[in-house]
Structure formats: C-alpha cells, structure tokens
C-alpha cells in the first residue's frame, strides 16, 4: 500500500517481450547488495538460455566478483548462445577484478541486454563497443530509470561529481521536530524508526552538526537491522568544540568538517582516529556548502544521509544541495515553541518559498513517510 | 491513485452474493444527493427483479420524494416479488412525505436489503419491524460502514446530538499557513483549491472567526463548482466587532456566535439579515466550545466546515471537538515567522501532545491532501 507520485517511467522498445521480466529479476538481485557494495554500484545479472534461467548473480562487496561473472560461473556449460541480462554496462578495464566483457565474450554469450551504460563518462560505452566488436547483439536502456534509481548515489557521483544527499527528519503534523525542552524521542513510532535505519544502512556516510552532537549525542550507526558495515560518520564542527568523547566519534571511522585550523583543538580528535578536514568558510564563518559538497565527493561517497537539527537543515535546504527529504510524519500536534523542520526565513513574499516535489507517500503503521525531491535533482535523474 | 489508511471495513454475511453489487449501486446513487439533501440524509435505492434492475432512485432535496419511492415508481409493474436495496432504513412515519414502508408493502416487494438502520434512536428499527410484520424478508447491515460514512453528519446529529465537524487547512511542508505578512493565497495549487470547494458544497455550514473575517474577508461560498445551494455561514465574533459589511454577511444566510449581549452592536448585523446568537462564555470570555457545539446542533447542521486561522484552530484542536482535519499540503517550505496550522502550547512534555489518526492521503497534482480524524470520532463511527 504505497504510491509513487509524478514519476513518469520511460517505456522502451525491446527485442523480446520476456526481456522485461529477466531485467526486473536482475534488478531484484542487485538490490541484495544495497547495503554492502559501496563505493561500487549495486549490480545484478541473469543468464538465460532457450527461455530458461541458467545462472544469476549480484555484486556483493568491492573487491569481490562482479555480478555478471558470478552469473556466468553459475551458468557454466550453458552459456553458449545464451542471453545475459545485466543492470549496468559490463566493465572493459582492469580494476580490482579482470574486465567483465572478456568473461562475456569467452563464455560465448550471443546477446547482452543492459539496463544502463556505465555512468562514468570516461569509460561509458567502451564495454558495449567491445561486445559489439565481437559480434554480440547488445540492447541498452531497458528499465534504465529503475537502474539509475538503484544506484542513485553512484550515478550522481559519476555524472554530477557529488553524492546523492538525503536529509531525514521526524516531525509532527504541525512540523515540530522537538519540543522547546529538547525532547524529540520519539515523535514517530517503532516502524518508522526501524525504516530510518534502512536509510542509514544503504548510505556511505551519515552527516550531522555540532549542535546535534552536543544535544542528542547520537551514535549515527545502523542498529535495529543486520548490517555488516557501518557508514562513515561526518560532523560539521566549525569551531572544533564538540566533545571528542561524544558517541559519534567512537570506533573511529569518523570525519570532522571544520573551518578552525587549530592543530591543538584538532589533536584530541586525531588521537581518537577521527579525520579532521579543514574546509573553506562561507561569509558567516561556517563551512561553505559548496566546500562541503566537494569534500563529500573527495571521500568517494555515493549516498549521504543527513540527520541533524533545524538550524543546519535550514542551511542545507536553502543551499539546494539536499536532493531528497525523507520526512516521517506522526499524526500528532505538538504546538508552539518547539523546533521546526528547517530554520530559515522569514520570507518577505510567497515567491521566495522553496519548492520541492512530492515523489512518494507510504504509511508506516500510525505514521506517514513522505519523500520530497529537489526539482533540479529530479530533472537530472530523469534525463534518460 | 489514493489510499485509505487503517480503516478496517467490516464484512457482512449476506443472503445473496449479488447483494453487495446492488447495494454499492444504491450507495453510488445516494452520492448524487451529496450537496443537496440537507438537513435530510443522502439515500439511494435500487429495485431488482429476477436479477434485473427494474428501478432506481435517490433523494435529492428535503420535501421531495424519497429514494425508495422514486425507485419503486420507476419499477412500476415489476415490483411484485422484487428485492429493494436501500442505503437507509425506510421511514415509517409521516414527515413531509408519506411513510416509505407503506409504498414498499403496497408494491409487493418480497425482500428488503438495508445498509443501515435509521440512526434516530426514537424511530430506529420501526420501519424494519413494519416490513417484517408484513412478511417481507429484511437484511440489515450490508455496507453499513460506507452508509455511515456517506451520512457522517446526519448520523452524528442523530446519534451524538452534534454535527460532524471538519477543519480545512492549506499548509506548506513545514506547516506554515500564512507568511508573517499575512500572505496566504495561494500556498496550494488549483486542483487542491477546487477540491476544497467540494467540501464546502457538502457542508450544511461554514464556520470561521472574527480574525479571519478581518484579515481575509472571505465569502465562504461554494464557487469553482456548480451548486444549487450555499452553506450557512457562521462567524464566531465574540465582541461583535467585525465589519457588518464584510463579504461573509452578504446575501444574508449568516449567523454570528457571540458573548457580547449588546443590542446596539448587534443591530447592524440584524439589519443585514444576519442572525445573532448569544452563547455562554468560557473562562477567557470567549464563546465556550461546548456552547458552540450545542448551538450548531440547534441549527440542525449535519456537516460543518471550519475555515479559519491558527488561533481559533488551536482552540478547536485543544477542545477535541473537530472530528476531522483536511490538510492540503504543498511541497514547499516557507520558513520562520509565519502562521502555523493550529496555535497552542508550548507543551512541557511529549505526553501532552494531541494525537489524531491518519485516515487518507491523496495526491492533488503537486499537493497532497492528508485527512486525519479524532480517535474518539473514529471509535464512534466504527461502532457498527
């Protein structure tokens, strides 16, 4: 019981009517790597021979075998003349593993159906060209919109040189995120909170501000659900005045974005294994938003999840850098005096409002999850 | 593309599998009287003979023929041994029209399927008893939940001695209803506004406060859609200090609820044909909410639609008297300093929050319409 709003999925002409079925299976397989492939993309593959599936695979972890290689391995002995369905263009270069196109050609595959080209502009199309040069029939663009959505962060990193950035908030119906007393746990219910951890699990990094670290002392780790890895934790701490023993810095694997060059203030963080990155300040003496985006990109992050307070969310909202807002809304009213969703304004005129787009609404027991996206982010995502 | 949340419709055992189909047709017919039957209920009827529909009807306007009479009239010559499907128990007493049960008996109807009993506790079951005493087979309770929903205000007036009260608001995603400048037109888009007029058209009365009359000078009439009648307009004007020439008082058909007994201040309103009702004050010297409810009931109102500002909405929200909140939400952010949805608080603790229930979410082009209901109102409605 959910709905997707205003997303127009392009339909493609394909060679065979069953192509769509196999490609959707491949997309489903790719999903199994949702929490683990980063910084690599999630990829799934299916090998079909004479209408029968003879092999399938998905990419699980960077450094491990690619989806198409696993599928071909499983299909051994039945690959001659078969069709390979793969959600991303097979690689043509030696990375941590040998190029996949070689395995495809060696296996005697006759036809390859690809959901989307490699989004890396430097190599895009090279795998396809090699396949074709070996007489293999190639179809590209089947379920492309879904394939982009699946790797929204990876594709963004390759095409836009920046991660896909989400901000997650939990609010009441009157958009209150915390009472004036600071009380904010829990506005929404169990199911919505568990869903929140799924967004963490698929993210390369979490991002918060110094204020949230001081007030809530969050861990920003994936809990509630099984996960073999934890996202990087990033704190915007302009003056390096958070407590180096805050929970977010435990277990290392954390980064601070700051504008304060003090080696002395940085020292206790460095000693805890936290990386401190000095960024350019904006006119208010806080890390500038373009600098934050650049720094996030330099860390090779695909999807970044912001969980922070109304002040920093206000800065992010105004910057236009947050692609997606994940809003859990409780059917409650909390009244005046509390914290809001994103602090900015006041506006002099309605024309100054910030317009996003609703893309999905889904009930989570008592609560709703409402997803909004930046119009320009949607425009980029939909250009297929 | 819409969804109904958390409404569990009771399923009924019925005599015949096609009963549900005919009753849903009768409910559909009843809907045609949505904007016109008040203060009467909306009723639809279908006559079926040997599996064929031979007549149908719906109640259109108080004083005009009842649905079952119209259906029987259309079915003339084919009513002997037929089944009558009707969304409300046929009346057994002389009102503005002769009792319907007499027509049913005279027509030779063999079986009557009724969605719900008459909700008026004084006459409930009398029509059914009369039908049974004439050897007619009677089934009651098919699609009862839908039938109650259809006449939510009428049923409320009969069972709870008060109308079904809705409040309609248009807000941004950060729950701002107007900028500090007072600018509020238009936060939501065309389609959402047109839908708003449908709620007005089905309401017996509109209700607003003196502040809204002063700031927005609304007409509170049904526009955008065809409608042969206009709802009564009610203004809570505690001190009788609104402008008697405000648009809401034009064309008469308006009522003021006040605590100010000044005959002199009332005079200009009375001269314009506006009725002035003196109500009991609360401790703050404003009309007390129980007094408002009683006054609304005395006006024989089924459904009342509140369109007002954050102050009065806050009073209504806290009173628990609003059964339903119709929230049009735009995918926009308007920031600090504006008016909210309902003013109350601040709360000392999260446990003091006001909890409602989401019952429906529906997209209206760019906007969402989110409907919430009071838990106790839902409990009343669901007791079938």
Helix content of chain A: 25-40%
Structural class of chain A: alpha/beta
Regions of chain A with pLDDT < 50 over 5+ consecutive residues?
Answer: 6-13
In CATH, the topology of the largest domain in chain A is named Dihydrofolate Reductase, subunit A
Quote the average pLDDT of chain A. 92
Number of strands of chain A: 17
* Span between termini of chain A: 28 Å
Helix and strand layout, with pairings?
The structure is a homodimer of 384-residue chains.
Chain A: E1 3-4, H1 19-31, E2 44-49, E3 52-58, H2 67-74, E4 83-86, H3 100-106, E5 111-114, H4 126-133, E6 137-140, H5 144-150, H6 152-160, E7 164-172, H7 190-201, E8 205-209, H8 210-216, E9 232-236, E10 254-258, H9 263-271, E11 275-278, H10 289-298, E12 303-306, H11 310-319, E13 324-330, E14 332-333, E15 354-355, E16 357-364, E17 367-373, H12 375-382
